Amino acid sequence: MKRILILSIGLILFSFYGTAQIIKDIDEITPFHEELAAIRKGNKWAFINTKGEIIIPYREDIVASKGSESYPYFSNERCLIKQIKNDIYYYGYIDKSGKTVIEPEYLNGIPFNDGYAIVLKIAKEELGKNDLLDKKVISYSYDEVVINPNGTIITHLSGPEHLIFSKDKLKKRPGIQSYLISSNLVALNNNSRWEIHVVNTTKE
Questions:
Q1: pLDDT at 16
Q2: Is the pLDDT of residue 22 over 50?
Q3: Which of left, alpha, beta for 55 (phi over 0: left; psi -120 to 50: alpha)?
Q4: Alpha carbon of 54 to those of 29, 37, 60, 101, 179: distances in Å?
Q5: Mean pLDDT in the chain?
Q6: CA triple 13-19-21, angle to 5 deg
Q7: Mean pLDDT, residues 147-168
Q8: Alpha carbon of 53 to those of 6, 22, 100: distances in Å?
Q9: 3-state secondary structure of 175
Q10: β-strand pairing of 79-85 with 88-94
Q11: Mean of the pLDDT values across residues 143-161?
């Protein structure tokens, strides 16, 4: 209901100011964050500014967040995106110009909050070679880490967790087990018990 009301107000404003850009056929419009609002047409999202101008054109790689704010938005000038490689989705971030500033290389990620985001970083280790099949034997794992808006790892939270690296096993991305509770504290769910970790800002 809230989004419908926002959309209705927006359309009235666009009609009232005759010289303003008119954006048509919108399926969904979201609240503004950092002076940008996401608009959806089909399965594509774009971003408009407070003047009603499309700043980031419609694209399919923008990720809607989960939870109460189940739509894409900018926080700390970063928005989550995804990219498919060999039938597996990887997650990264764009800035407010639409430029990719943190490459899609994570198995999962969440929006930035208070200057940090939590992501799942993949690691692979070559264990040897299968002479019979003439193939390298590689072990995959992932770690849950905190990054800053530059993509620098600030704090290691958990892992490594063993990973079966195949498109069938990764149709559903692994879940993130922690969340930021303040600008320097993270709550981590460890075997149904909670831990509090301090973000290591000395690495910035």
A1: 46
A2: yes
A3: alpha
A4: 12, 10, 15, 20, 32
A5: 86
A6: 70
A7: 90
A8: 16, 9, 21
A9: coil
A10: antiparallel
A11: 94
Least Cα distance to 185 among 163, 172, 200, 174 occurs for 200
Confidence band, pLDDT 50/70/90 cuts, at residue 8: very low
In sequence order, the 6+-apart residues with CB closer than 8 A to the CB of 15 are 22
Give 104's contacts (C-beta < 8 A, 6+ positions apart). 81, 82, 83, 85, 90, 91, 92
Query: Who contacts 84 (Cβ-Cβ below 8 Å, separation ≥6)?
Result: 90
Q: Residue type for 96, please?
A: K
DSSP 13-65: HHHHSTTSPP--S-SEE---BTTBEEEEETTEEEEE-TTS-EEEEEES-BPPP
Give me the residue spans of the domains in the chain. Answer: 105-204
- From the list 114, 131, 110, 126, the residue with the least C-alpha distance to 173 is 110
DSSP designation for 122: E
Task: Name the pTM for this structure.
Answer: 0.83
**Is there a cis peptide before residue 160, judged by omega within 30 degrees of 0?**
yes
Q: How many other C-beta atoms can be found within 10 angstroms of the C-beta atom of residue 2?
A: 8
Q: For position 20, what pLDDT does the model report?
A: 56
